[in-house]
Specification:
With about 120 residues, the protein is mainly α. It is built from three helices and no strands. The chain has one domain: Helix Hairpins. Helix 1 crosses helix 2 and helix 1 packs antiparallel against helix 3.
C-alpha cells in the first residue's frame, strides 16, 4: 500500500492525495457509525431523528449521551454503542495519522542517495 524503504518519498502532490483518501475513509467510517447510532436510538428508544442524531454524535465525540436510555434494550444498545464509539475514535485517529507517521519514518530511514 505504501512505498517501501528503498523507494524515495512521495511527492507533495501524491502525499496530499494520500491524505485526502485517508480523510475520505475516516469521514465514511464516521458517517456510517453515526447512521448506525441514529438507527439504534430511533429503534430502541423511539427517539425522533434529531434526538437520535444528537445522542449518537455526542457518543462518537466522546461526550456521552444526552438522553438517558429508559428501555432495557435501549440501555444495552447504548452501552454497546458507547464501546463501539470508543473503538471508532481510535480507528479514525489511526487512519488519519498513518500517512503522516509513515512519511516521517520513511524520510528518516531513506538513504540520501535515493532522494
Amino acid at each position: 500500500m505504501y512505498e517501501t524503504r528503498r523507494n524515495p518519498p512521495l511527492s507533495h502532490r501524491h502525499f496530499a492525495l494520500r491524505l485526502a483518501r485517508h480523510f475520505a475513509l475516516a469521514v465514511l467510517l464516521l458517517a456510517l457509525s453515526l447512521a448506525l447510532g441514529m438507527a439504534g436510538y430511533e429503534h430502541y428508544e423511539s427517539l425522533p431523528w434529531r434526538d437520535a442524531f444528537l445522542n449518537a454524535a455526542m457518543l462518537l465525540g466522546g461526550m456521552g449521551p444526552v438522553n438517558n436510555p429508559v428501555t432495557p434494550a435501549g440501555k444495552l444498545f447504548a452501552g454497546f454503542y458507547a464501546l463501539y464509539a470508543g473503538l471508532v475514535f481510535i480507528i479514525t485517529a489511526g487512519i488519519m495519522l498513518a500517512p503522516v507517521v509513515h512519511r516521517m519514518l520513511h524520510v528518516f530511514h531513506c538513504d540520501e542517495r535515493d532522494r
